[in-house]
Amino acid sequence: MTAEWTRPDGTPLPPHALRRLERRAWRWKTSWWILPPLLTLGVLPWVGYLWAGIKTARAKYYWSGGIWLAISLTWGLILPSAAPGAIPVVAMSCISLATIQAVVMNRHYLIERAILDL
Questions:
Q1: Under a CB-based contact definition with an 8 Å cutoff, are residues 60 and 106 in contact?
Q2: Contact 28, 39 (CB under 8 A)
Q3: pLDDT tens track of the chain, all 118 residues?
Q4: Which of 111, 36, 92 is nearest to 69 (CA)?
Q5: Residues near 56 by Cβ (< 8 Å), separated by ≥ 6?
Q6: What is the pTM of this model?
Q7: Helix, strand, coil % (nearest 5) of the chain?
Q8: CA distance 7 to 34
Q9: How many helices and strands, by DSSP H and E, does the chain display?
Q10: Among 49, 79, 98, 99, which is least packed by CB within 10 angstroms?
């Protein structure tokens, strides 16, 4: 299993990171941040990204969280008065797209957390 866990540039991970990544329980516990987009029905997708940014200090999570915050504010505040028929489409897009993005980013997040958490 160690062969499939490498950094994005292909360099090997330190032994402490490999030990963490090989434990399924640690991966499940650390991956909770992908749930807010799904469980909050697209209203709070930015919460998980904010948490990921805090834990890894990586700008990509903060940027994603900021973008999803802007989108959720837009569909929550502006859309109901402008186009009430579009609310279900935008809400489903926020749920599915934010969740898919988090699932895709989760592998890198787990690697970053395993390296950082000594």
A1: no
A2: no
A3: 444 887 777 788 888 989 999 999 999 999 999 999 888 877 888 999 999 999 999 999 999 999 999 888 877 676 667 666 777 777 788 788 989 999 999 999 999 999 987 5
A4: 36
A5: 109, 112, 113, 116
A6: 0.82
A7: 80, 0, 20
A8: 20
A9: 7, 0
A10: 79
